[in-house]
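Lab notes, practical 5.
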Amino acid sequence: MPNDWANAATGGALQARPLTGEAFAAFGNVVAPGPISRQVNDGRALRYDGVARLTHDPYAAEPVLALYAVTASPKPFEIDLLERHPLASQTFVPMRLAGPYLVVVAPSRADGEPATDRAEAFVAPPDVGVHYAPGVWHMPMAAFGGDALFAMWMWEAGGGRDTEERRLPVALRVEGW
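Output from the prediction step:
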């Protein structure tokens, strides 16, 4: 890890904004019903296709569906760790959640490290999921206002190649939520 990547963190606060498909498009997409659906289950349900493109490298050949039981975190919350998944996209869908949750993402710099000076924060409503594109730096899941349960979907390769983590030399703070 280059020594100078730490200088990218400003230590200033990120302003959280609502999670929308348009605002989040550079990092993945929002998992929510779209405008196009079709009737299924003998007409008792609407199926919304294409809410997330589950992409992966051929090395990540094992589809994994896991549950994340997340302990509530206090506010204010400082982010001192980002992670990414270079071989596959990752999807989280809330199953039990007391209220909105926080999504913080950052693009990669040219050297592959997180560009924390370009990090963005979003407030996700409890009835939508989030789909991170492969390689997008993001904060680990956190719950506020009560414990939470998320379903997670990702293709994995195993052997420690699925997740990269970086401790931030300057914690990111999020305001406005």
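Observations recorded by the TA: The first strand starts at residue 13 and ends at 15. Helices lie at 21-24.
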